[in-house]
């Protein structure tokens, strides 16, 4: 520090703060929000913290200063515990006959309230799904209306709530559904549903989860209007509810007698407590076969991945794709699986 110019000293102070916060955030998946609600808010900012530490590392690397070791060490620890924020290449790209393709998509009520200033978003979503033709489709924030026609799926299970605007989750399948049901989350429109699907002689369960939303507008001007104290309190309360909802889900999951695939919008990142608990020993299909940042939510500041597809070890993950089609505030994701 003594040999650094004043500007570099200031940069290193900020570097040390950001590195320390990132290091602290790496233990968040192990801290229940009910006990550490304030710290749990950091899980949303981990991608940004990683990117900032990369920038600090590059800054010191260009200057050929040993201060680069701080961010390098923290980034290395993060990589060991959580893997890379960015996937440089797909792990698998296996061509197999008759794979099981599973898509997850939060459709935001098919643009019911014209959030996207474009006509016929609902038709475009249906046509998009039809063109990609997944074997199984999990939708969050589904809103039925006469314009929505998913009749090209032979089997379905949906669970709706609400009075004026009925909405909820749905599972659509080309394979027969022999059993289905809902895991109710109290005092919310969010829930989890499941369907037991049969392909040939194999039966497996599809879960579709939608955890509590932060209900925060990510528009910059709208964020400025919100007080930081209120935002932190809201996020902490939301993450507590997410923990309770995930605990209800896990009670049901433990009794499942079948191989399973879990889809959903967790409204939280891969650095969160609920992600770690719900994933358990399942495989995150993005980590197995995805590429890039895997962004699934239209956040204005940095890439955020809050929608997931997990599969247990009975499935081989062949492919994973994150789509760029802007038909909702979420982006659809799809994986290709095969049974061992």
From TrEMBL:
Transmembrane regions: 12-31, 37-61, 68-86
Needed co-factor(s): Mg(2+); Mn(2+)
InterPro entries: Endo/exonu/phosph_ase_sf (IPR036691), Endo/exonuclease/phosphatase (IPR005135), TDP2-like (IPR051547)
Coiled coil: none
Domain Endonuclease/exonuclease/phosphatase, first and last residues per copy: 105-330
GO MF: endonuclease activity
Name of protein: Endonuclease/exonuclease/phosphatase family protein
Source organism: Gaetbulibacter aquiaggeris
